[in-house]
Every structure is written in C-alpha cells, then in structure tokens.
Amino acid sequence: MQDSPDLGDRGGAVCVVGAGASGLTAIKNLRELGFAVDCYERETSVGGAWNWRHDRSPVSAGTHLVTSRPLTEFPDFPMPDTWPDYPHHSRVLEYLERYAKHFGLSDHIWYGMEVVSIVPAGDGRWDVTINSTGGGSSRVQRYAAVVIANGHNWSPVSPEIPGDFSGQVIHAAGYKDPSRLRDRRVLVIGGGNTGCDIVVEAAQHAERVWHSTRRGYWYGPKYIGDRPADQVRHRKGPAWLRQWRYRHNVADLTRWGVPAPEHAPSESHPVVNGLLPEYLRHGRIEAVPDVSRYDGKAVELTDGRRIEPHLVITATGYRPRFDFLAPELLDIDERGRPDLHLHVFARKHPTLAVVGLVQPDAGLFPLAHWQSVAVARWLRLHATDPERATAVQREESQRPLTSWSRRRVVPTRRHWFEVDHVDYLRTVESLLNRLEGAK
C-alpha cells in the first residue's frame, strides 16, 4: 500500500483506543514490555465509565462497586486498606487517576482525540484516523498493532415498546441523581444491578415505585455474615459447593411477586443488592411483570394490569460498539456480537486485540490486567518470532469456547461476554505460559 504524504508512520508503536480502566492497564503492560504506545481518549481525562464527568459515563450519584475491593483492584496496585469494602464511584475514579500517575501513563495519552477509523495497511499494520473532538482536521497514523479498550457500557439499548406514553421515558444512562425521583410515581424496567440500584433509590424518594422484570434472577446480598459476599462465594471448593453456598444466602422474593429464576445461579450475571428484599417486604417497591405497551398516561403490563407512572426508567443494558472498524475485522455477527478468542484476540488479525470486553462474576480490573499482559506478550512474540506466533495462534484458536467462557448462561445480550473469573484466569495463565519467552 502506497503511503499518503500526510501519513505519520509510528513504526513498531501500538495504538490503544480509550483511557478507561482497561486502556490504562493496556498502556502500562505494553510499556513494560518495551512498546511505544499512543493512547487516544475522546474525553479530557482518564477514567472512562468511572468518570462521571464524561458524556458516556453510566454512573449516577449513588453508584458504588458491586464487587468488593480485593476482587476489583489491579493485582499490582492495591486500593488503600482504609477504603470501604464497596467504594463509591468517586473513589474508583480517584484510584484510576492514582494508577495513571503512579505508572506515568498520561505521557502516552492524547486527550480530546477520537479514533474514527482503523483499517488494515498490510503486513499486520494499521492506519488509524484520529479527529480532535474540539474541531480541526483529521490525521492518519500507522501502527504495528491496535488494542481497543473503548468499553461496552456506554451505548444504551432501549426496549421497543409499542404505543405512546405521555409521561417521561429515560434510559438508565441518563439517570444521574435521585432528585428527579422525588414525589413522583416511577416505573423501573430491568432486573440487573443497575435497575435494582435505581429502584432502591426510588423507594427512598418516590411517591410510588414499580419494578418490572421479564424473568427471575438470583438476588444476592452484599454481605454474608461480616464478609463481602463475593469473597465467601469464591472461596476454594468444588463448583457444586460454591453453588450451594450461594443458593442458601439469597432471598426468596417470589412471595412479593418477583418471578422465580428458571436457571442456576451460575447461568446469569450475579445481581448484588441487599436492600431490594427489604424494600419489597416493606411495600416500598411493587414487583410487576414485563411491559406490553404504552397507552397515553398508562403503561399496560403483560398480566393485563395498567399503571400510571410519571417517569419510566429503562435499565435495559448496553450494546458493544466498534464504529471505527469494519465488522468483519472482529467477526461481528448481525446481532453486533464479536467473535474473539478469549474475548480478546481477533481470529484473523494477530495484531488486533480488545481488552476489557468481559463480564466476570467478580471485578473487571484484574481480568483486564492479565488480558493486557497476554496481549503485550503476544505482540512481542509476533514481532520477534512470527513463525512461532502463527503456530501458537493456530493452536489457541482451536481451544473450545467452553474451556474459557461460561458454559451455560441465559441466552441474552447481557451474557454475551459472561465468564467465571477463576476459570477464565486459569485459561489466560495457560496462554501466558506458552508465551513465556516473549519478554
């Protein structure tokens, strides 16, 4: 391919897209293996989803971690022992800012720069087009590899509900403060962690609250005894024992109208909320089934009931988006689901990877760390011994999906990237062992 006169060739450098938690650990681990790195971040600071100032951040005023501190922190940069078990989102942002400062990552980040196109340039290299979010002309830089860390919780998915509603409808992404709930009748649609957090806040502020869920889920507490529940849940032992522990510490909410789950606890993402059962039992939250249609002031439910909320909040999740890439580069199907080995490595392009595209049953940060270590070692091997790298890729691509992904899950978009973090890390460890010489 002939070079354009305005093309900047960055030689063996790697392009990282996004400076959230996954992008930061990607920069750090690539740099530790000797790569030059340019990270492009469309916002003016680090933090990604955890920076509430960012337009695409899904966090609200009351957002806390739902995974405990030891199972969330990066393995080489612990959170302070004096912090709570489940830190507030402002502390998570502070932690990421400290991480970036400690490892000197900001020197490698271009803020206010958005990646708009990534195209193959031959020989495993990539032409990356970048625009300034403040205006100005585009520029194209050529890189030896690209690591995408743009997150998957920023493009809202709203349910398609027929009819017209005369009240207000917002997605959970637009919910920021409980003041908008005060003295209003509120319907929250969605049974995941976000929906449960919002409906609990509504129970504290709203006049009346309905919680609509399509199916039943397992609602676990944040604590079992005096220990964070995830630390108890992931104690050593066979899978059946861990499942038994979990089943005996979740609330049975069917008496209050919540559907019974039709799947095992391991087959869906854990919902962690100790206050939801309390507010259901106090009558502050009324469980209702799925919504069938809007009708003016009313919302009609699938059981025929009609309710009249002032505000409907749809906590119905997000879709992964890679608008800067042709879908076939990540083997994205018609539903928008990419097919990546370990949810990381592009199968046909060994110098293209994604970090952070997993939904674990514990914290994401440790998984993103080890993913980025594997990517860095993989790219080093590809640069120093391409023949061996090709052999490793061929063998790795034959590893069955069930060896590293959750074996059985509820068949919804929410569970596309679901993994058991222990099994997943064991698989990543086996890959790292194969790449041991790539340092």
From TrEMBL:
Origin: domain of life: Bacteria
Entry keywords, A to Z: FAD, Flavoprotein, Monooxygenase, NADP, Oxidoreductase
Pfam families linked: FMO-like (PF00743)
Record keyword Transit peptide present: no
Gene Ontology molecular function terms on file: flavin adenine dinucleotide binding; N,N-dimethylaniline monooxygenase activity; NADP binding
Similarity section: Belongs to the FMO family. Belongs to the FAD-binding monooxygenase family.
Protein name: Cation diffusion facilitator CzcD-associated flavoprotein CzcO
Organism of this sequence: Actinoplanes lobatus
